[in-house]
Amino acid sequence: MKISVGNLLSAISHLIDIAQGRKEHAPKVTYISLQIAKLLKLDETRIKKIYYAAFFHDIGITVADKKFFTYHIDLSLAKKHCLLGYEFLQKLPLDRDIAEFVKYHHEFYNGSGAFGYDYAATPFVSQIINLADQIDITLDFSVPYYLQADDIREWVLKKKGILFNPVIVEAFLELAQKDRFWLDLYNPHLRQIVMALSPEDEVYFDIEQMLKFSEAISLLIDNKSPFTHVHSQQLSQTVYTIAKIMMLDSEMTNKLKIAGYLHDIGKMVVPNEILNKEGRLTKEEFFIIKSHPYYTKLILSQIPAFKDDIANWAGNHHERIDRSGYPEKLGKDELSLLDRIVAICDVYQALIEDRPYRKGLYQTQALGIISDMVKNGLFLEEEFLLLKRAVS
């Protein structure tokens, strides 16, 4: 199995945009950065790194609270998400420069940015991404570009040699004279336009690299809450053990492990205050929580290599055979054994973990509750027996 890194970062950036309430931020920053880089005639190696770094630049923002501008203006929050993104990207089999570029994308020319580094200490690519980032958060996309393009150009020019590198500013000012630049930015299909600009020698992950990527993503998601900091990793291991018991081939076994790592990726759209709430959830909060498997399947289905299996195994983990689950009310005839395995492992893992409102249960207590669920027609005996063998 080969997975395009371009597909991965497009899908994950889409989820970040949903979580932050900002439409197509990553593709816009990537587009602006690439256009500036090409105008400056940067070499293909650096352009390729810009493509990945710009798409991934906000990967460290995992808090869904609609405070998009705050995370770009508050320097302490900017530094925090830059560091988290840097740590995440260091775990991936990508060029290490990409992590560095993301780490310093909130630095300004005069040293007034997140880390206090000036233009001499900040990678040139980070300075390009910073300008692109600032332009997107300054633009009001509810207003036609021709009513604000002059103001944007004037603002960037005023910040020349203060916030932004003069060389990069001049390139942007030349670029901003072209109507096509603005029309592309406003195009509702910008994501497809940017994907078409992907490097000719696209980077692909094999199954082992994808496992590392998935584990890194799971750490980002689980760290949203102190109560779930090992949830996806342990669930993934249990699913993997069951796959071994079933004597599935190595590719299927690893795919199931990936599904385990990524099953809660949709929680990026759920605010931390809901995930960590100690009291009873309101009706609205409960519906927000219930949306996370929908987003898991939506995002993973955008990755062609995941569409027919991993996206379903991960996205169906709250479905039940009696159609009492969510978000699709799928039933016995629509849920495969592998769907049900991920789902029953999720229940088990949740029961043995601490939650804001209770302590984690002992293994025997958790299995007793799941046994009752089998008797009540939520799961089948088949997956329950496999779970017991895996955790015994």
TrEMBL record:
Transmembrane intervals: none
Superkingdom, taxonomy of origin: Bacteria
InterPro entries: HD/PDEase_dom, HD_domain, HD_GYP_dom, HDIG_dom
Domain annotation HD-GYP: ranges: 206-392
PROSITE patterns: HD_GYP
Record-linked NCBIfam families: HDIG (TIGR00277)
Protein name (database record): HD domain-containing protein
Species assigned in the record: Anaerocellum danielii
